[in-house]
Amino acid sequence: MIRMTAPSTMLIVFVLGGALRAQPLPDVYIKDPEGGLHGEPGDPRHLESLVKSLGPTLDKFDPEKFAKAFRLIRDGFLDDLSQTRWSTATEEQNRHALDFHRAIESVVKDFEAALKSGADFTYSNRFQASADADRRISVMYFQGRPEELALSVGPTRNFDEEQAKDIRYRAEALDSLLNEFKKPDRVKALRAVEAAVERWDRYFNGGYSMYPWETVTNGHLWQVSWEHPPQQQLVLFHPEIGVQISTRSNQDASFDEVVMIHGLGYIKYWDENRYFAGLSLTAIASDDNGFGFGPTLHLGFPSLSDRIPHVSIGVNWHDIDDNNDYFDDSPFVSISIDFLNLLNQDESKLFNKVFGLPERKAP
Amino acid sequence: MPKHQVFLFHGMGDAVRGTWDGEWVSALTAASEKYAEFASRPLSKWVDFVPITYDDLIGAWLKKWSDNSATLDGRLSSLGSGVEAIFTYIRTASKEDRDLFWSHVVDVVLWWLFPIERADVQSRVLKQVVSALDRGKAKPGAHQASVIAHSLGTAVAHNTLHELATSESTRGAYGPGHHRWDNLFLLANVSRVVQTSPKAYESVVRPGPQGDESSCCRLYYSARHVLDPITWVKTFSPVGWPPAYRPITIQQVSQWNVHAFEHYVRDPRVHVPMLRALTDWWMITEEEERQETDRFDSEAGLAGLALSDLRDLLPDNPETQGVLETVQFFLQALKTLRRGTT
Q1: What span, in angstroms and rounded, lies between the C-alpha atoms of A204 and A189?
Q2: A213 to chain B: nearest residue by CA?
Q3: Helix (H/G/I), strand (E/B), else coil: A98
Q4: Strand B181-187 with B4-9, pairing
Q5: For A263, phi and psi rounded to 5 degrees?
Q6: Phi/psi at A148 (nearest 5 deg)?
Q7: Which residues in A254-281 are b (16+ Cβ under 10 Å) and which e?
Q8: CB-based burial of residue B143 (10 Å sphere; 0-12 exposed, 13-18 middle, 19+ buried)?
Q9: Which among A341, A29, A322, A346 is positioned nearest to A159, based on CA atoms?
């Protein structure tokens, strides 16, 4: 989205009170943890009342309806400004209230301009009642430049209590509206983060297992970010237990337990790390046939790894007749499954049931 | 108005206990109960604590690896980044050092030097943070969110907040123009020690005014105890940051383990600004603050600590401390702190 550049650049702080410690605080200044900032239910300045006055709620995202809600707040404030409700306010207080109205007017204009142009509308705490470090209660309005204009500071309050309530209620309502307006972006962010966790789960927990030295190497080899795990993996000195079978004759076709070390290999992931395939150069040690070596193919489905184990299938040669020629005998076929991954799945495993392994507990 | 959301990031080895967040909340609640206003408006009514846990992931990796025949020993040769040196050192270290390393310091090493583990943790931490923020912002009323982090948690929080504000998929909702953290309280701040990218002074995790695209919080408090050795290496001390950066340096000692979270929040110089920021400024009067500070200072004292001996382990310039030297120093510091508690 295009970021809106605000032409006007000013931060205005409307100071509602100074030297507040000297006297009891009226409720309007208190950020009551159990409510109170939004007016009484039924108060027209209450956000829910505003939303209700627009007909159906804002649940269904409709920018035009938001624009209308903003205008309602602005117009309502202007109405109050000319009403007797604020008759006790001094001229100076009313002048400050008018400044607040200008601030509302400005944000409504910004909002509507952003709607028309399709630009991004930044909203970070544009209106938020807060206490600053000097214990002045303020409502802030910001248009873009890191400069601050305090309209009044001192022991004399700049608004009477009714004005202060009105400003505060409307500021809170505006803040909530702006917050609500950004809901689609929040949902998008949440979905993106959830998807990233799933991708990482598939790569790191469901993918072809990695020993610590492999994770360090892969972490420095490939582009890594929390959003996107690597789409590839280097296999390095990776030990596995497997079996091999001779292809020489049916008589030799018995399973032979072997230790394999995938010395160096490369694995490629596809479809957001949902499946992978790769190739390694493997050394094999067998009690019966001694040392051997050959290529190994790795295949796996990380999202199904708790049900379908990753498989490595290799072709390897041994110097069975001790003539220093590994390739004059028929090759063996080796098969292994990724035990390191399989034994560390979070959920109950078919594998555990089949092989009667004890259930693993979380650390 | 909705409760102030306060995200808690634990330190190294904290989550092993499983009760760390309860202990933290108890410590904060105990501090708040020293002040009159909290009797009628208790902390629990103001604050919604959101514990962010990542230690369980680290524990799971270690178990996964150590359960297999190939352990962490060996095989880490020629990988650079100081990893080999650390594990070589640990293999030959005393049992006490090895135990401390696997229970505490390994968290730091994995976060610091293992990019894949770090990114995996970060995605899961971000999920916890974004889910909670979304819940908080969905409630009517002004949303407030702050962070309290301790030790390694300060580094985790730093990276998490920076990524949240700048990553393509999250900045539309949580970039500086859309979301501003109200307060960051980083206790025993090690975000510079284990910094990766961006560096702690160069990220958006700094205070700034509304709308400032280069900052993501309103107020940034960084507290360190002068005797906390964990903060001696690459001490967090930015120059030229705005007044909204509030360093807090404390020196009173009320228990041997001066690095502990509870020890930090027991000091009114830490918990008074914290409690005010999480509730409201008027909840603790200036008179109460002065009285509690005087009382605390009169009861606490500088015990005969052997911590000063640790200074000898540091090179002349802790700013240039290497990876292995930092790990060795942390181990020595933890041993010293633990001896005092037993």
Answers
A1: 22
A2: B76
A3: helix
A4: unpaired
A5: -65, -50
A6: -125, 130
A7: eebebebbbeebebebeebbbbbebbbe
A8: buried
A9: A29
Type of residue numbered A356: G
Which tens digits make up the pLDDT trace of B108-165? 777 878 888 889 999 999 999 999 999 998 887 678 899 999 988 999 999 999 999 9
Query: Rounded to an integer, what distance in angstroms lies between the CA atom of residue A303 and that of residue A204?
Result: 11
What's the distance, Cα to Cα, between the start and end of chain B in Å? 45
Q: How confident is the model at residue A128 (pLDDT cuts 50, 70, 90)?
A: low
* Sheet hosting strand A11-17, strand order edge to edge: A128-131, A137-142, A11-17, A148-150
Identity of the residue numbered B21: D
- Residues in A closer than 8 angstroms to B220, CB to CB, are none
Task: Give this prediction's pTM.
Answer: 0.81
Residues 64-103 of B with CB under 8 A from A: 64-65, 67-70, 72, 75-76, 79-81, 83
Cβ of A200 and B123 within 8 Å?
Answer: yes
Q: Give per-residue burial for B195-221: e unless 16+ CB within 10 Å, then b.
A: beeeebbebbbbbbbbbbbebbbbbbb
Phi-psi region at A145: left, alpha or beta (left = phi > 0; alpha = psi -120 to 50): beta
Q: Tokens for A138?
A: 């303020």
Which residue shows structure tokens 């050092």?
A: B97
- What token pair was written down for B152? 């390694």
Single-letter residue type at B59: G
Report yes or no: A237 at the B interface, CB cutoff 8 Å.
Answer: yes
Q: Are strands A332-337 and B4-9 parallel, antiparallel or unpaired?
A: unpaired
Q: Residue A34 contacts by C-beta under 8 Å, 6 or more apart in sequence?
A: B45
Return the residue in B4, B63, B127, B213 with the most chain A beta carbons within 10 A, the one to mutate for interface testing. Answer: B127
